[in-house]
Amino acid sequence: MVIGAFTGSLLFIISDDSSGHWRKAGLFIISFLGGLLCAQWAANLLSLALPSTIAVNPAMASIIAAASVVRLLQKLTSEPDTLLDFIRSFRGKK
User: pTM for this one?
Assistant: First the structure.
């Protein structure tokens, strides 16, 4: 899974067009840790989406998890109102 998370993080950083080196380093670390921590979850999600004849390896799923975690984080932070509305939806309406 470590190699998969590293690969997913590297692919994400190569495809990201942000300007700062520190920003890219930070996103790489978040992506790598996200790939490690979410690999099994991503494998379970993929196994639900794919036919039962296809076996999903957590190491392969960690590549997808590594890239997806940071994309989701970037999306939520680029639109703070969306994130606040999402959080408020769990609190209920007053």
Answer: 0.71
